[in-house]
Amino acid sequence: MNASEVTPEKNDAPQSRTLPILPIKNTVLYPYLLMPLSVGRARSIAAVEAAATSEDKTILIVSQRDARVEDPTFEQLYTIGTEAVIKRLERHDGAIQMIVQGTRRMEIIEPGRAMPFLEARVQALPEPSDTGDEIDALERNIVDQAGQIQAMSNAEAPISIAQVLSQFKDPLHKAYMMATMLSLDLEKEQQLLESNSRLEGLRLMHELLAHEIQIVELRQKIATQAQSEMSREQREYHLRQQLRAIQEELGEGGGEAAEVDELRERMEKIELPEDVRKEAERELGRLSRLPTAAPDYQITRSYIELILELPWDKTTEDNLDLARARQVLDEDHYGLKEIKERIVEQLAVLKLNPAAKAPILLFVGPPGVGKTSLGQSIARALGRKFERMSLGGMHDESELRGHRRTYIGAMPGRIVQAIRRAGVRNPLLMLDELDKLGRDFRGDPSAALLEILDPAQNHEFRDNYLNLPFDLSQTFFIATANTLDTIPRPLLDRMEIIRLSGYSEEEKVQIARRYLITRQLKDSGVTAEQVIIPDETLRAIITRYTREAGVRQFERLIGQLARKIAVRYAEGRGEPTTIKPDDLPELLGPERFFLERARESMPPGVSTGLAWTETGGEVLYIEALALPGGRDLMLTGQLGEVMRESARAAQSYIWSHAAALGISEESLKSTGVHIHVPAGAIPKDGPSAGVAMAVALASMYSGEPALGDTAMTGEITLTGLVLPIGGVKEKVLAARRAGIRTVILPEQNGKDLRELPDEVRREMKFVLAAKIEDALSVAIPALAERLQSVATIRYAEAPQGNGKKAAAKGEPV
Amino acid sequence: MATPRRTAGELFVSAARAYHSPYWQPAVDVYETARGWVLKYELAGVAPEDIEVQVAGRTIAVRGVRRDVRIEEKRQSFCMEISYNRFERVLELPCDLNTMELATQYRDGMLIVVLHCQENKS
Fold first, then answer.
1. Scanning every residue of chain A, which has its alpha carbon at the shortest distance from the alpha carbon of B21?
2. CB contact set of A195 (below 8 Å; sequence gap of 6+)
3. Domain topology for B25-67+84-122
4. Same-domain status, A528 and A651
5. Which of A148, A286, A778, B61 has its CA 20 to 30 A from that of A166?
């Protein structure tokens, strides 16, 4: 037997029935949902009594439109309500507490009596049962939204809304549940109840929830804003606590206390002068009281670290072996005898008096002559640490001397930093490019150097940042410069000036042999067997491809040669090559410079002068021309004031000695003079062209040409004296390059000839002139006879054999 | 024999069932016997003609209405704990019920449903 035994009773057949009505305030009861109600109004109690007495305990729950109405009429009620069954009921002091459960939606179709309770004819509304994709989607959305709202409201719910909603199978019932849980507008709740399709109800609910979410968000935002100030501080505090906890966990110092301890430990281990230790203790005490987060913490810490790292008492032992020092210096540099001697002298002094103050030297010379590398070499010879700093372009005094600690980002000055890097108190500190110091409104760094470089003051050098005296007196300062002109006098005064003039051709060849070729071949990866560069090739490079006092360009060209050969080897067609001078155009390109050959025959009025420039010496010609009918002295060729004046002095001298020179007074009176010094675009200045001017003028007035192979230099006075000038070596080398064989020099410069390489002295003739007449009679042979009575021609003695220190005193021939 | 796990589970979450339907649920006892199942529903005060038993596959549904008995016309409710009106109880058992013999008996306010396996089948 399969069928049921009891025939099912047909579901609520009656189309309409009469039910007691219970009006409720502020809320709506939905089908399927339970609701506790408290009933107090007389008519409501009567309605509940009637329902409780009835067979099926059914009552119609209808919301009243206005909660303030105490005894609503039918007009004040909505017409659609929910039929409910009374589940539980209890009476206390005349009021009734009960739980009702909605069953289905009902509509009042005919209001009945109003007393003793409201009663009406009602009819059930069909339960919506439409389906579709949109309904599914809306259902899911609503569940999500509900979860969102729950998450946003801080209420701790024992069970999630999503879980509660999952118990309803009908999507519309989920909406009913949501509406009950949220406190919505009564009107909206009623609208949901009146929805005749699931779609309508769900759409409505979706909209309501979206709105609700916005409100909750807004509310939260307002609350957050009000709290944000407080909470930021709290947050920071919490984060710091956490950070400390993390650091402790990682064993990372455990915060500031460990750091202070570590610094203290370091401080106890090293030796510090008493006042420095006191200051460091003071700062350390300050540090221990500061929180790590304080901006001052880092500043104080790095200050203490600087104090601890500075070599207050650390020195290196000087290597006082003179022979070894000589050897080291010779290994690194060729020539430069004077400087090497000076270094050896210093070593000797240190040997005899270990407390001697370190010297302060200034190397002046053209670029590429090895000033900087000489510094390194000296450090090596002495066994001192080498630190180098370039002053070029520095224009802020604070950069040298540091900023006071009150400034943000304050740092010790470059001097203290260099000492810190060196790690000893007696390094060799090289101050490069001293002549390129700038200065502006921030101060003059050279003024700071005055203190640093003064042996009388620098044992108590005070850096603005360090603010403690530091002893620099054991520091060996070497400054370098290309020219002395831009260095302030007081600064120059504090230093011992050592000139490194340019190298002669022979010296360059030697330097190439000893250092440059080896270095360049090594860089290019070829061996000395593969490339052979004979001396005449080196000479050809020096004369035809370079024009410099130093050897930088020369070295680059040797490198270029080496690379050309390296290319051949790399291509597999290499063979040991001897580079001849004739190969150079192929390897280095066309010759760049032509020898400034001495002008072979010179017209009257032209003389050969010598000039000194930062890059070495130059030969320059002075041309004088008579201007018949004129009276003036015209000077062209970018001549400076001093040079113009020496031209006038020369002219005056020639005029006043016209008779002795055999010059007619007429020619002086009736002609003007134009003196031009090529090259016209290069500014020239200085007194040292005086002799050459005088010779040019004498030659012009007398109509006798000067010797083309004789160059001259020297300052003149009105009374005809020849005064000494500088740059003798460079000038002589320039003259030699140009093929000139005789050089007229002021008598007092005779001593400078010692600086010249032996082979130069052997090859060239030097005339030491004390008076203008001496120079004139040598330069213009035709005048020699006329001047015989007044001129004394003295040749410098040529060196004997290979004597290294041939005396160069002037001697009459 | 399989145990009626799902049934038992549902028994304990009867509170949740309140939401499944707007109807009240009678208490039920479920027994397994040598020949099948015996179900006992607490349906005091329900007229036998108001009870409907329906079997479909593994589920057995008992529905009906409990109507209050009019004791006195004029009265006042002070406490009401008994559920009236419609009730419904749907149980799922771990076997096909369509093939079973079904017998009902209403005695002393209890509805007893007996489900027996058919003799010829076993």
1. A32
2. A128, A172, A201, A204
3. Immunoglobulin-like (2.60.40)
4. no
5. B61
